[in-house]
């Protein structure tokens, strides 16, 4: 059987500098070298060898849907929520109730918010 591991996620973004700044501010992701090309695509490390690639597409229409999102987990869930509040990032639960934490049936807490391009992000405490 062939085994796979997650390597990276790539997002089309209107303003690559704004997007890099957002992910660095919110998640403290470090920028790493784009070793694939000399393009304006910028890479961030999200830890454990995983990456986020931000591809500039200033004229591309970005369609969003909350069901299409990516998620990060943290053991410091409550501290992260406080941090979002401190940097004025609005979050909601799955049902779009502002500043509310959603608790799944299995007890995992989660919140949702959007990046500057409208992509949905989930943060949960499933560590």
UniProtKB/TrEMBL annotation:
VOC domain span: 5-126
Pfam families (UniProt xref): Glyoxalase
SUPFAM superfamilies for the chain: Glyoxalase/Bleomycin resistance protein/Dihydroxybiphenyl dioxygenase
InterPro entries in alphabetical order: Fosfomycin_Res_Enzymes, Glyas_Bleomycin-R_OHBP_Dase, Glyas_Fos-R_dOase_dom, VOC_core
Entry coiled-coil feature ranges: none
Gene3D superfamilies noted in UniProt: 2,3-Dihydroxybiphenyl 1,2-Dioxygenase, domain 1
Name of the protein described by the UniProt record: VOC domain-containing protein
Organism per entry: Croceibacter atlanticus (strain ATCC BAA-628 / JCM 21780 / CIP 108009 / IAM 15332 / KCTC 12090 / HTCC2559)
């Amino acid at each position: 059987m062939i085994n796979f591991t997650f390597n990276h996620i790539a997002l089309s973004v209107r303003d690559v500098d704004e997007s890099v700044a957002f992910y660095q501010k919110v998640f403290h992701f470090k920028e790493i070298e784009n070793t694939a090309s000399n393009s304006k695509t910028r890479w961030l490390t999200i830890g454990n060898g995983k990456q986020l690639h931000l591809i500039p597409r200033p004229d591309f229409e970005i369609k969003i849907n909350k069901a299409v999102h990516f998620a990060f987990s943290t053991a410091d869930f409550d501290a992260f929520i406080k941090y979002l509040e401190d940097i004025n990032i609005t979050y909601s639960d799955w049902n779009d109730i502002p500043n509310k934490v959603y608790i799944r049936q299995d007890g995992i807490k989660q919140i949702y918010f959007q990046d500057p391009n409208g992509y949905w992000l989930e943060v949960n405490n499933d560590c």
